[in-house]
Amino acid sequence: MKEPLDFNKPDHAATSAGDSRLDSGRSISQILQEIVSRVGEIIRSEVKLATIEIKQDLSERARAATFLAAASVLIVLALGFLLLGAVYGLSLAMPSWAAALVVGVTVAIVGGILFYVGQARMKVSPKLEMTTQTAEDNIRWLKNQSK
Questions:
Q1: Total Cβ atoms within 10 A of residue 14
Q2: How far apart are CA 102 and CA 87, in angstroms?
Q3: What are the phi and psi torsion angles at 92 (to 5°)?
Q4: Which of 50, 61, 91, 145 is the most buried (most CB within 10 A)?
Q5: Which residues on adjacent β-strands are paired with residue 27?
């Protein structure tokens, strides 16, 4: 069976009136300073980890972008040859200049439609729903911690 605590003994001085020292000999202000220091260390390590992850992700995306750029060049060349084939095919039924004109106007119309659709989509402002939500959650958590 444990003995009841005697707060007048020196080893229990942390709970006696007027003394802010705990059993370990550290004051409450020292403990709070250590907590703040540890929180700072945690935040710095999280930022460092996020930086490393972002660099790795950007490196992987740069390699993927290289493949996409090469594929895009080849697709544009293939489209050019398909359009040339369309001009040659139409030139069997009409003069070559008219066939080239028909294919050119058709491509210009399709390009214009794609341009206007893309332009309309670019005017929509980005929604940062997840960022906003997590920021609000963090603020609510901090307010609850300070209560």
A1: 16
A2: 8
A3: -75, -25
A4: 91
A5: 21
